[in-house]
Amino acid sequence: MASLVAYDDSDSEAETEPAGSFDATGQTKDTSGVARPPEKDFASGTLDVPKARVQPTKHGSCEDPGDHRLPLAQLGRSDRGSCPSQRLQWPGKEPQVTFPIKEPSRSSLWTSHVPASHIPLAAARFKQVKLSRNFPKSSFCAQSESETVGKNDSSFQKKKCEDCVVPYTPKRLRQLQALSTETGNSKEMEPQGPPAGRAPAPLYVGPRVSEFIQPYLNSHYKETTVPRKVLFHLRGHRGPVNTIQWCPVLSKSHMLLSTSMDKTFKVWNAVDSGHCLQTYSLHTEAVRAARWAPCGRRILSGGFDFALHLTDLETGTQLFSGRSDFRITTLKFHPKDHNIFLCGGFSSEMKAWDIRTGKVMRSYKATIQQTLDILFLREGSEFLSSTDASTRDSADRTIIAWDFRTSAKISNQIFHERFTCPSLALHPREPVFLAQTNGNYLALFSTVWPYRMSRRRRYEGHKVEGYSVGCECSPGGDLLVTGSADGRVLMYSFRTASRACTLQGHTQACVGTTYHPVLPSVLATCSWGGDMKIWH
């Protein structure tokens, strides 16, 4: 460095205190002890040079010769040619002093979730240095700092608001999330099943008969009375409960099967204790349908993962596993041959499976998109299927009668009103069956060809509103029970079609109702909210 020439400017002012000095390597030394290149920080506005290299200036603007400090030239002179090509530049606005830190980069305030009152280490050092130097703060500096702080706060709040934006969630899902939170925080701990794909633990199904069921096994079923009180309130599912069914073996009918959209199905002791006996997590998607085998020791389940499983309760093993071509919504065992079952779902066809061979033995195809329910008639020689086919001008194919052996359609002109039927139920004594309709009423049909609908009896007063609301007859056939989309449970007299009772059952849609096969006036209901109630 041969010489340093300082260019004076009338607008520039010399600082009164030293800010840095050149060392042997050509870098400036700051009071904070951090080295930085001389061409990148000239906030102090002065340069210290050795005494041997001080050159007198023409303008005589240097301060005390003993200090050897020269003011910096300011950018913006009109005569640019008079300045050297590599001249020192004075910034247009007074910058803030920054001090780099030789530490690893820290995560931002947002990602690290540090409180807003926390001051980073770099800011603390900067604050200490400024206080130690006692620089007078001009109005321009104060204004720029306030603008910077306001801008940082506004950008932080904007980023926080953007990160807090939650996508729209339907009302049903919001209610399910709230319900799952309450279920997770509840003190009652239900036994959880193994992860999907693993065999569940064996469930001991002994010969012991419930003390409440024993007195009714050897006697004729008494007249069904209307239940009034809640015996048990069963909570354990983390999603809507789709179906419920009592065990068909009378001596083991204290067990209740429930399926849910939370990918599980459970077995409960719904008569003695109200506790969950076992949870089965065999499916990777929602379990839409499950049925007890007529022997009472096995459960057939199907779900939206296209999988079919037949589980032995006593050993916990899967006796049969199959994969369907469609999502499964309904399953029914053949009433005579228990090794055969029908499967329907989101497809234009239904399939009959043989458990012994593990293969499809017969298919039933129609011009539909979904099968809603299946009901066997005449000891299995015929069956009915309810579908989603409903046009504006006609309602053919809404209920179809099939011949089980030949796969031929017996009739598709059964229900002539423009409503779909989400569920079907057979009367235990009369040759009739019930169809739940989306017209908010129960329709009564004959089980004998041509399957005429009764015009005189119609059971009205509940709401369906698109839910798969189930219906059923009492074991004696005197009462009909159905759920409702508003959470109510309604019972009708079979003979007169008048309303016998209304129960305020659930806060959300009641989608399943079933009478106990032995105990009089014991009723089980389930809801879209994920809970079940046992009434007596």
Account of the protein in words:
The chain is mostly beta strands. The protein has 5 helices and 33 strands. The longest helix has 25 residues. It starts with 19 loop residues before the first strand and ends with a strand. 34% of the residues are buried. The N terminus is likely disordered. InterPro entries: WD40/YVTN_repeat-like_dom_sf, WD40_repeat_dom_sf, WD40_rpt, WD_repeat_protein. It comes from Chlorocebus sabaeus.
Helices and strands in order:
Layout: E1 20-22, E2 28-30, E3 35-36, E4 46-48, E5 69-71, H1 109-112, H2 121-133, H3 139-163, H4 171-185, H5 214-217, E6 230-235, E7 241-246, E8 255-260, E9 265-269, E10 275-280, E11 287-292, E12 298-303, E13 307-312, E14 318-323, E15 328-333, E16 340-345, E17 349-354, E18 359-365, E19 371-377, E20 382-387, E21 399-403, E22 409-411, E23 423-426, E24 432-437, E25 441-446, E26 453-460, E27 471-473, E28 479-483, E29 488-493, E30 499-504, E31 510-515, E32 523-527, E33 531-535
Antiparallel strand pairs: 1-2, 2-3, 4-5, 6-33, 7-8, 8-9, 9-10, 11-12, 12-13, 13-14, 15-16, 16-17, 17-18, 19-20, 20-21, 21-22, 23-24, 24-25, 25-26, 27-28, 28-29, 29-30, 31-32, 32-33
Short précis:
The chain has a domain at 230-535: YVTN repeat-like/Quinoprotein amine dehydrogenase (Methylamine Dehydrogenase, Chain H, 7 Propeller). Helix content is 11%, strand content 32%. The chain has 5 helices and 33 strands.
